[in-house]
């Protein structure tokens, strides 16, 4: 240290710590000349000791003025060393960098000034300290002192110039530091970082694009900054990188795709739009590199399809179509299960457009990769069934298309119908709101006869009789009114003369027995008028409830629709369709006289011609309701005609069908009685006294004895209209037939 003091005049040593800047500056100039002389003499030991003295006695001094003098002194030594300065940088630069965090703002300012002067002398030689300098500048860019910030900006510009012209800069060592700093929220630091990214990207020899995944998320994070200037700078940098990606033959799409997927769900609109725009370009450019990221990308796209911003929706839809049009196979790494999982999750979205596109994806996968989709069917089947309750008709229709695609295989068809009935049973509102839509659409997609046969088979064995009745009534109404089922109705109309119609009638009859009105409707449709009349006469008092009358009212109104035009025209020939008249009059007798349905049907029956009501051969031959010409075709004598009529009825055992109907209805009546008895026993269980109970029972018996025998207009009219030949047939709880 004495050597250093001997080399430096005492006045210089004293003035370096003076509080006046001018004195410190003059001392530094004298120190610079002294070092120049030592350099010329090659006295490197003395130079090192001078530097050590400046660090120990000045730069590390507790006195601020001493620290200021030490900084200006180190800069002066560097200037004096000139071309020889590089070998002393490891002594000179660290104390200057440490001064950037000094508590005194003036010390920090002079540290910037000192390092600026040092950098001007050594230029690229100080690149070895770049990371420490960058880190220090990053902090100084957000300094609370405006003068320090200004000094830091000047130093920053000089360092950028040096880095851009240096061939010693290591981007690999710098990127981890940049990545760490990208999470800082301070706006000044963000500007500083974007500035460096832009500068480094402009250097041809520095491959910033290759390291883009390391700081891409940070750039996207800046897009939501409160400062418009920062958002603009970040967007400009991202736009430049995207253009480079388009022109680059080799890009790491995968790592960046993960970042973009996360940013596509940002609450910030500008961030979402930029992310989805990048994803759009990636889908077009990425090719095979993105195959294993398709599920994640789809998970980002689908929600954006329903974004509140139109421009985001447009780009998302375009990207979705682009992604769906790419032809890849599972052997290429395409994960069908992952895509299905994403689509399944998006079916729970609150947005209709997203749910629709999710279903479109399932449908697309089913068409392209049917075998793989069926392997994951159990994972998505329940969700698809729940989607049938969706509030949107468009969604329900698409779900049905997917179900129909799955149900092309017999085992899956059966499973679909079983689950569908189960859902209807579990959720009555689903049957009311969506029943007609679901059944009609399935009939179009999967063949109406096949669907109705399967539904009938399932409902035939249904234990929940009340649900079975409701379901059958719904199916019957769809059968009678839906345009999609016109062929099925035509087939039933010929059920008495052709095998296909007969088999269908028998198949439906078993489950239609759960509803008297459904059976009557089916018979009218099949033109089995005599059986319809017999069914009507088999009804008992218990059947005459509100539900029955509501269904009867619907049927009467349906008789006035175009579907039953053929039936109304048959009324022009009452002699040939006696059983049709008897059936309609039977229905009329069941209706309350003040009801609108009664008036409608009575008005219709008043228009029937009054001739040919007497029984005769002609009436007998046509009593089934089948067109008379059908029986007359290719036959001339009466015996042959009678035999033909007899054979047409032999195909369907209506006696057995009637017994089947009565058995099912007896089950319904027994269940109804059980409910009534249970309700009564529950209400009377609150009685605490046996004597009170006996008294109530006696009163009830007396009331029953005083009450007149059960009778109703409808039942008495029905009795009067029954054929005398069936008067001996009675059953428990039934009217006389």
Q: In brief, what are we looking at here?
A:
The chain is mostly helical. The protein has helices at residues 2-7, 10-15, 21-41, 44-59, 64-81, 89-98, 105-122, 130-140, 146-165, 171-181, 187-202, 212-222, 228-247, 253-263, 269-286, 294-304, 310-325, 336-346, 352-368, 370-375, 377-386, 393-406, 410-426, 428-446, 448-460, 465-481, 486-493, 499-512, 516-526, 529-538, 546-558, 565-570, 578-590, 596-606, 617-621, 628-632, 638-650, 654-684, 690-706, 713-720. It is found in: Endomembrane system.
Summarize the topology.
Layout: H1 2-7, H2 10-15, H3 21-41, H4 44-59, H5 64-81, H6 89-98, H7 105-122, H8 130-140, H9 146-165, H10 171-181, H11 187-202, H12 212-222, H13 228-247, H14 253-263, H15 269-286, H16 294-304, H17 310-325, H18 336-346, H19 352-368, H20 370-375, H21 377-386, H22 393-406, H23 410-426, H24 428-446, H25 448-460, H26 465-481, H27 486-493, H28 499-512, H29 516-526, H30 529-538, H31 546-558, H32 565-570, H33 578-590, H34 596-606, H35 617-621, H36 628-632, H37 638-650, H38 654-684, H39 690-706, H40 713-720
Helix pairs in contact: 3-5, 4-5, 4-6, 5-6, 5-7, 7-9, 8-9, 8-10, 11-13, 12-13, 12-14, 14-15, 14-16, 15-17, 16-17, 16-18, 18-19, 19-22, 22-24, 23-24, 23-25, 24-25, 24-26, 25-26, 25-28, 26-29, 28-29, 29-30, 29-31, 30-33, 30-38, 31-34, 33-34
